[in-house]
Amino acid sequence: MVTHGGVINIIYHILKGLTWTNKNAHFPTSYTSIHKIEYQVDKWVVTAENLTEHISSDQAAGLSN
Question: What rounded mean pLDDT belongs to the chain?
Answer without folding.
Answer: 83
